[in-house]
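Cross-posting from the modeling subforum.

Setting up a comparison between two proteins and wanted a second pair of eyes on the formatting. Protein 1 (sequence, then structure tokens):
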Amino acid sequence: MVVISSIASPDPDQITSAQPITRAAWAQYGGLIAHPSEASIGTLKQTKANAGTATKTSQIAPFMSNYDYAPSGTPATANANIFRCEAQGTIHDQLRVNVLERHPYTTQSFIPLGRDRNEVGYVVVVADDKDGVPDLSTVRAFGCTGKEGVTYGVGQWHAPMIALKETTDFVVYVHENGVPREDCEEVTIEGGLLVKVATDASGQAKI
């Protein structure tokens, strides 16, 4: 990874509250990896599999590589990695995000292992791009339970993974070519972004 810039937070005391993640709300940032409810199947294709003992939902999230357009011309491989993410402490259910990153030529998917299906176990923070750096006026945050994984779209600015309460392992699917600037770009946020989290999933919207 390479730090490409440092930008100032417009208001370090402004709070972004994490909302329950839904397929519709997350669609513009990538894809939600979760079994769809009847209300959110939409155009997703479902078929029987495993001799009729399973239902397959196809293409729930993108898995893309644009490394053919990378300046170095170095080929990438599709990799399955494990990230062990330490729990981040909160003060009055708030934490500060000081870095946003993106993967310019690949999607990146996080699938949590061993977290409670009914408890918010991690938070994702995203922002749109503006002239090659995050547009901090567009920051959003989402709380995710153990039954939900996320895919970040190609070039999507996001915070490093924020695990809550306990260290959490994630399976991470990503394309990589080993060229630091092409695999991951980082921007530091002077003053940081204040995010309010909640671990109660009782109000979690249907996915």
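Protein 2 (same layout):
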Amino acid sequence: AHSSIMSATNTIKFNVGGKHFEVSRDLMEMHSETMLGKLVSEAWQQDPEESVFIDRDGDIFAHILNYLRYGSIELPHTIPKSSFERDLDFYGLGSKEGDIKEKSILAILDSLEDAKMKHDMILFAIEVHHQYAFRSYKNFGITVYEKDLREKLGHSETFFSCEEKKLFVNYLDVYFGLEAQCYINGSFQVTRK
């Protein structure tokens, strides 16, 4: 009778450090040889409807489950690789070289730089749209200079990078219906599309 109850229950409930998880029984059966798999086997789990309590870090456990699902993981910067590996050992799970990656502080800084660039380029596009609305005579267009835009918005760099130019021109097009031609002297000729 106990076996039929276990097979009728398609999920397993965990309470790990106060965080609750519900996991497919199939996932645990794929890892039945591990401590975690044995913990929820018919031999150990008396009542399949009850949560299995594990006195470990629930935040790390969420990543352990994803590791089991996908076979690899990129850890957020909030979870040290050493802590993750310690819990892998606790649960009887091994890892292969390259399966666990950490999001490096350099990757985080790069994403912040990228966000800052996007922020700046949309501000520049808004400024040019305002200038176009007030200075353009019968839609003949206006000329704006990178240096003036940067000074107006408090930036010290003089010229846009190629990536910044592409983003700026794209924002003008997509959000304001303006077309901008870039010139080597650091100016843009802006017209209505």
